[in-house]
Write a structure and sequence with these properties.
Structural class: alpha/beta
Strand order of the largest sheet: 10-9-11-8-12-17-7-18
Oligomer: single chain
Distance between the termini: 72 Å
Shape: globular
Number of helices: 26
Bound molecules: iron/sulfur cluster
Radius of gyration: 29 Å
Strand content: 15-25%
Length: 761
């Protein structure tokens, strides 16, 4: 009888992380170069090597024991056959002497593991193992060599594999059990809601064909479950390693976790490991403390206690924010960094879109290093263009720099003074007037200010050194991160972005790098995923998202018909009203009359949306003066969570009134007021972004690139907000209500074409 042998594959990096990390968490030797800087640094070193140098050498080896075949693989950074020297290249910033000993030990473990695999592959008796540390700013290399016998490396490799074996066996069993359970997964309700099945079929097909799907599906059909369920059932059939459910806001994460709980994951049936990823500032137990052993008790001995915490975490399987925190504290490790570690071992990761799409995204990094076959789900995807633009934009603040300069410690004074001089030069030569806080002056710059970017790099180097010696200096740390973010984007500056300067008075300028076309950054991310399902109630027109997000050509578009009847929603257009800036005073009378007439006809809860707080306040005052009997309340600037909840609590069954809100703000999407809690919406704006110099530059760029400047910069983003806001009214098959669109432009065919068909408007 032949023995059944399970195969488990692990990357060299993951194997070494697992077996060779000990001691404290230490982020003093940071900020580490970004992944992209790392790649550029590797290329720089490789370019200095000889013609026979073999860069990115793929290596693989296996270890078998008791029915398990462990396959270890990875790419060694470089091999110089002439000197039998294998190199592991690491990039760093600042003084190498500050590197923690456990970090160095991890690097040796990786290099020696590659050494063992190389000796096997090439039949070498000995090899020189070299750690090459490249200082990212100066380009200087530090080389650490040791020549080791193949037998020694082999013994170490075997030891490492043995240490990992129990875990690999458990992982292999988990994967089998997971896939078996998912193959038999049942939909948790008796039947699909109308439209939900069509969405689920579309999502499944996307996973089966390895494509991106843009699915526009109306509110109320259960999109979260309608996309999660098919992707989970596709996991075993398509060999998907991980699913990432990515959301725009925290409530979206809760919805995904609730859907997973309904599928049984919270009770371990199916045996899915579910992890909720949260931001560091929300997860940190010791805010304001440096993340290092000497300062934070949850960083001290982190890697020594990690194995037990990791075992407990995978045994539990359900790791939402609360569960992860309790488990981390029980094991005295940092919840945030435990979450980062567990991302490697969990099946479904629920997080923010930036966990996969931003420049240094954790999930993208893991997918690359561990070779995941990854399924992506992106909720509220109509916001991804805006969110991604934010991820690839950065700003520098002259006033902050000047303030910090005054209290600067001696080692930073020179670099800050140089940067400050560059600022003054830039402001002088930019041609942008001085402006004021009330009326800022604005200009788009033709080119990146090279002198200032150079001075910024100098400051980064000084700040890195200074903070390594003086950790926990919040403001300087913030400045460093700001400078780094700006510097990284400056290196990649191109047609996808613009550079602008805003002046709010003397010494109060802001220099911005603003991304306009996120496609150039996002396209490789979509290409790296096996499949992606982007869904929202407002994704039309598909070309807008395809162009601006960089979705692959063969992406599929699906519109799930609304399960609502046109009779449920009365849509009226008041084309006799103009809400253009110049016409706003004159519009108040007809708007107030419309609100009051509708309220009299059917008293109940309504939302009225305006383009700005000023317009909103004017309309409120006009309504109060003309119809003091109509109860009303309004959104105010900068409402906190409690104030927002109080505003929404006003929409209680049994009472009535009109709530005033700003279109595109906190109440324009993502709120759920079913039945009598909301019976109508008035929309007194097309939601168009203001026609200012920035938006005009955006329009020109999008026109040049896609031939649809006005649509892409103004009309589509505006109408998306309108449809989102109007979508608050009909939340289910029983709802009935009215939407009044107030502006003459709503009568135009090109605008109507962007409204949902089922409205029959
Ligand atoms: S608890 Fe806070 S300070 Fe401590 S390691 Fe975690 S994130 Fe850093």
């Amino acid at each position: 009888m032949s023995e059944t042998v399970d195969t488990y594959r692990v990357a060299v990096r993951a194997l070494c992380d697992f077996t060779a990390r000990r001691g404290d968490l230490d982020h003093r030797f940071t900020p580490a170069p970004s992944a992209r800087e790392g790649i550029a640094g590797h290329a720089r070193v490789v370019a200095r090597r000889g013609a026979d140098y073999r860069a990115e050498l793929p290596l693989e080896g296996e270890f078998r024991e008791a029915g398990l075949r462990l396959v270890v693989r990875g790419r060694a950074d470089g091999y110089a056959p002439g000197e039998a020297c294998l190199e592991e290249i690491k990039t760093h910033r600042g003084d190498l002497g500050r590197q923690a000993a456990n970090q160095r030990a991890l690097h040796w473990a990786q290099a020696r593991t590659y050494g063992a695999l190389l000796c096997r592959a090439e039949g070498l008796a000995r090899v020189t193992i070299r750690l090459v540390y490249l200082e990212i700013t100066s380009g200087e290399e530090t080389r650490l060599d040791e020549t080791v016998a193949a037998t020694e490396l082999e013994a170490e490799f075997v030891g490492r594999c043995r240490d990992f074996l129990a875990w690999a066996r458990q992982e292999s069993a988990h994967r089998r059990a997971r896939d078996q359970a998912l193959a038999a997964l049942h939909f948790p309700h008796d039947e699909f809601r109308p439209g939900q099945r069509a969405l689920a079929e579309g999502a499944y097909k996307a996973a089966a064909t390895g494509r991106c799907l843009l699915a526009q599906a109306p509110t109320g059909i259960g999109k979260t479950l309608g996309t999660l369920f098919p992707l989970l059932t596709a996991m075993p059939r398509q060999g998907l390693d991980r699913l990432a459910f990515l959301t725009m806001k925290t409530p979206g994460r809760r919805l995904a976790l609730d859907a997973l709980a309904r599928l049984g994951a919270a009770e371990g049936q199916p045996p899915l490991r579910v992890l909720e990823l949260i931001a560091r500032d929300k997860a940190c137990e010791h805010p304001g403390t440096p993340c290092q052993g000497e300062a934070c008790p949850l960083a001290e001995g982190f890697y020594d206690r990690l194995p037990a915490a990791r075992r407990a975490a995978v045994a539990s399987g359900w790791l939402d924010r609360q569960a992860l925190r309790e488990l981390a504290l029980a094991h005295r490790v940092c919840p945030y960094y435990l979450g980062q570690e567990l991302a490697r071992w969990c099946d479904v990761i629920v997080g923010d879109v930036n966990h996969y799409f931003d420049d240094a995204a954790l999930l993208h990094g893991l997918a690359q290093s561990d070779g995941w076959r990854l399924g992506l789900l992106v909720d509220e995807a109509h916001n991804l263009v805006g969110r991604a633009r934010g991820m690839y934009s950065a700003e520098l603040d002259q006033a902050r720099l000047n303030r910090l300069k005054r209290s600067a410690p001696a080692p930073l004074k020179g670099a800050l003074a140089r940067l400050s001089r560059q600022w003054q030069g830039l402001v002088r030569e930019s041609g942008v007037a001085e402006g004021s806080a009330e009326r800022p002056a604005y200009g788009v710059l033709e080119d990146l200010p090279g002198g200032l970017v150079g001075a910024l790099q100098g400051l980064v180097a000084r700040l890195g050194d200074y903070l390594a010696e003086h950790p926990g200096q919040g403001e300087w740390q913030e400045l460093l991160f700001e400078a780094l973010a700006f510097g990284r984007l400056a290196e990649r500056f191109g047609d996808h972005s613009l550079c602008d300067l805003e002046r709010r008075g003397r010494g109060r300028a802001r220099l911005g790098l603003r991304n306009l076309v996120p496609a150039d950054f996002l396209a490789p991310r979509f290409a790296a995923a096996h499949c992606a399902v982007l869904f929202s109630a407002t994704l039309s027109p598909a070309a807008y998202h395809r162009d601006l997000l960089g979705l692959p050509e063969e992406s599929v578009w699906q519109t799930v018909p609304a399960p609502f009847r046109a009779e449920q929603l009365e849509v009226r257009v008041r084309s006799d009203i103009s809400t253009r800036l110049a016409d706003r005073p004159a519009s108040l009378g007809p708007i107030v009359a419309t609100l009051a007439a509708q309220y009299r006809r059917r008293p109940g809860h309504y939302l009225a949306f305006f383009s700005s707080f000023a317009y909103l306040e004017a309309a409120r005052a006009a309504l109060a003066a003309a119809h003091p009997e109509i109860p009303q309340r309004g959104q105010t600037r900068g409402m906190d969570e409690a104030a927002r909840e109080a505003f929404l609590a006003g929409f209680a069954p049994g009472s009535t009134g009109i709530g005033f809100a700003v279109l595109g703000g906190a109440f324009g999407e993502g709120i759920d007021l079913p039945g009598e809690r909301l019976i109508g919406a008035f929309i007194a704006t097309l939601g168009l972004p203001p026609s200012d110099p920035f938006n005009e530059a955006l329009r020109a760029r999008l026109q040049a690139r896609f031939g649809r400047g006005y649509d892409y910069a103004y009309r589509i983003p505006g109408l998306t907000k309108v449809v989102q806001a109007a979508g608050r009214v009909i939340r289910g098959p029983e709802d009935e209500g009215v939407v009044v669109l107030m502006d003459e432009r709503f009568a135009r065919p090109e605008v109507r074409a962007l409204l949902p068909e089922w409205w029959g408007a």
